[in-house]
Write a structure and sequence with these properties.
binds uridine-5'-diphosphate, Carbamate kinase, alpha/beta
Length: about 230
């Protein structure tokens, strides 16, 4: 395996799949199968899952809800997804721990960096819920920050496209996928890989990001093995 410790960022929005419910059990199942295979290869895995399928802070004001309150609602939404993912993984016989950036003792542990690392060393998958616990951040920033804290080798950003393109591949058939990009190039070309906070954290800490298609079977394993199956930003 090329990477020994990975931080996997999963979008909350993708959890909806083709269903009208917030969480599509087929998507959860597929995530678990991908994750389990990688875990079985001895890779240490930490996961950050978004909350966009349930609530985003950005939606708050239109609903007459205070923005900061909305961000906390978004953070709680990520905990719901994290709990669903935890349960699904455990059904697959994978040991997990859920650690949250907001204290909620009845459902999960608080985030304690050293304890998170210990869980990983013991072969447990650590899911980070509730973002970093502060409003005005995103789960992308959470992924970057936690990855740095736990000294992950790479951030894998699972999306519905297989990498970063010169332009929107859904609109322009002549769009070309980048295999690798430097942080500087990605910035200059204004390629929206992650929000700026998340992106800058990775750049300043020399933490590579790989954007890849999480819906393609076997892709996560390929990437963990170091195969070229997405866009590497370093
Ligand atoms: N959020 C926050 N602080 C954090 C992480 C998340 O305030 O540290 C809020 C923010 O409002 C965000 C929402 O939680 O819109 C859900 O997360 P995100 O939009 O990143 O989820 P995704 O787009 O990945 O599904």
């Amino acid at each position: 395996m090329k990477y020994k410790r990975i931080l996997l960022k999963l979008s909350g929005e993708a959890l909806t799949g083709n269903k009208t419910t917030n969480i599509d059990p087929d998507v959860l199942e597929q995530y678990c199968e991908e994750i389990k295979v990688v875990k079985e290869q001895g890779v240490q895995l930490a996961i950050v899952i978004g909350g966009g399928n349930i609530f985003r802070g950005g939606q708050a004001e239109a609903l007459g809800i205070d923005r900061v309150q909305g961000d906390y609602m978004g953070m709680l939404a990520t905990v719901i997804n994290a709990m669903a993912l935890q349960s699904a993984l455990e059904r697959h016989g994978v040991f997990t721990r859920l650690m949250a950036g907001i204290k909620m003792e009845q459902v999960c542990e608080p985030f304690i960096r050293r304890r998170a690392i210990r869980h990983l060393e013991k072969g447990r998958i650590v899911i980070f819920g509730a973002g970093i616990g502060n409003p005005y951040f995103t789960t992308d920033s959470t992924a970057s920050l936690r990855a740095i804290e736990i000294q992950a080798d790479v951030v894998l950003k699972g999306t519905r496209v297989d990498g970063v393109y010169t332009k929107d591949p859904l609109k322009f058939p002549d769009a070309v996928r980048y295999q690798t990009l430097s942080f500087q190039e990605a910035y200059e070309k204004n390629l929206n890989i992650m929000d700026m906070t998340a992106f800058t954290l990775c750049q300043e800490n020399k933490l590579p990001i790989i954007v890849f298609d999480m819906n393609k079977k076997g892709n996560l394993l390929k990437i963990a093995q170091g195969e070229e199956a997405g866009t590497l930003i370093r």
